[in-house]
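Students often ask what a 'structure token' actually looks like in practice. Rather than answer in the abstract, let us consider Putative sodium-dependent mannose transporter, a protein of 596 residues. Its sequence is given first.
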Amino acid sequence: MKLEAIDIIIIVGYLVLTIALGFYFSKKASKDLQAYFLGGKTIPWWILGISNASGMFDITGTMWLVSMCFVYGLKSAWLPWIWPTFNQVFLMVYLSVWLRRSNVMTGAEWLEKRFGNGRGAELSQLVVVVFALVSVVGFIAYTFKGIGKFAHTFLPWDFASDTYALILISITSLYVIKGGMYSVVITELIQFIIMTIASIAVGIIAMNLVSPEMLSEHIPEGWKELFFGWHLDLDWSGVIASVNQKISEDGFTWFSFFVMMMLFKGVLVSMAGPVPNYDMQRILATKTPKDAAKMSGLVSLVMYFPRYMLVTGLTILALVFLGPKISQEGGFDFEMILPYSINNFIPAGFTGLLLAGLIAAFMSTYAATVNAAPVYFVNDIYKKYIKPDGSRKLYVRMSYLASFVIIVLGIAFGFVIDSINSITQWIFGALFGGYTAANLLKWYWWRFNGYGYFWGMMAGLGASLVLPFLFPEVQPLYAFPFILLISLFGSIGGSLLTKPDNEDVLIDFYKSVRPWGWWGPVKRAVMERYPEFTPNKNADRDAFNIIVGIIWQLTLVVMPIYLVIRELWPMLIAFGVFAITSIILKKNWLDKLEND
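Now compare that with the structural description of the same chain:
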């Protein structure tokens, strides 16, 4: 791709700015571990929310969303439930509050508060530290492969993909390691502004180039419909016949069953709480539990509208101008829709801004991931077992070293793997598939202990790693119920075959976090010891707010799609639903958040 001078100036200027900010904030970040990893819990919740949204606005995910929107149209709005995206609604409604009330620094430290200091608690902390470090190395390899292929496609210099990846990761690592969370959050704020401007610009360009009549000529019947029956009923014959083959390969023909499975898995995964990554770190970095809830709510509010203007804009440009070419040539890599659209339809200046925004998307995701990882080694291993009496400066220096080692391991892994898809399947299929059961029970069942957590995690992760080899043709989503049952067996068996946790530990946890669920014996003990204590009776209200919140979040996805394809009445209906659900959430969630 040939870039104009103005495009190159914008990209280089952005990279220089991010490095400068990292070094500027290094003094603030080097005070102690809490300053380095959590920004001293002084960063405003709205900045953390925008930072978190920026960290989720990644290149690879955007390319996938564009390809899904091209093939499935409005129905692609449901497909991100596979991650699931509505986990942010669960965090917003109650889980961020519970997590922040624990007042810890890492997921492993949280387990100490939940399970105490016995042998079972140590095993539970060990397995979550290993999970966190391995998953971060995997994510670095994932971003390494993705940014390399992206940069090789767009940037004008004749470097190999892995060389581009190495250069960009090295630049990003400079400000992440040196500046800690302060630099990560501030640079992500700038990155989000760049991405938002670029995304809205692409949407407007597409609206000017593609009329509704032009779009209708290049899509099948049903492409503009959000809802569906048992079957997908989207036939591309006579338009782009090869798309039918992709739908068959994706396994989405029985669309209702697929969505129900996504919902089943998504609810359980969301109730388990965040995995030990940047999402958890942002929650723990807020000033209060109320701020943590508002921060999680802001993520959905600010992220989806600009992102789906970008996704839809690139999609309709490709449908109208690339579609006939695909129809004539047959086979096509649908992930190349994004580079094709940028290369052919975005003017000079905006191209540089958009590329800077997409590089920013990579940098924000990568930076947030790397910043969340070393704390597990330094705080939960080095400080606890190796050097408990070390100075604050020593711990910060060890954080630098841990970040560097983790980055090197991730890059090395990135050189070895063959494709983005292989590492994606490993992370979301193998690692996260076995995470759910143990982390679900830790919030809601008093009898669940450290041994149950350890054996549940081990059983779940083991099943997640073995099942893909035994049944390679099975879609990972359809294997989830079997992995869940195996992990539940390990979790419940490990708990019931060992003694309950110390009563004082359970009382302290229940009193400070105040969860709802099966906590009967512990609740009675707390009420006897602290008669003024008020238990959490909000389970029904939280469940109602989650249903409303999922609908609210879905409107934030479909409104920008309808706007860009210029479907006025559906957009107004979606806006009406958004307004009604916003009012309900304001009165039944936001106004009732407690000031701890």
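One point worth highlighting: The CA atoms of residues 230 and 256 lie 5 Å apart. Ask yourself how you might have guessed this from the sequence alone, and why that guess would often be unreliable.
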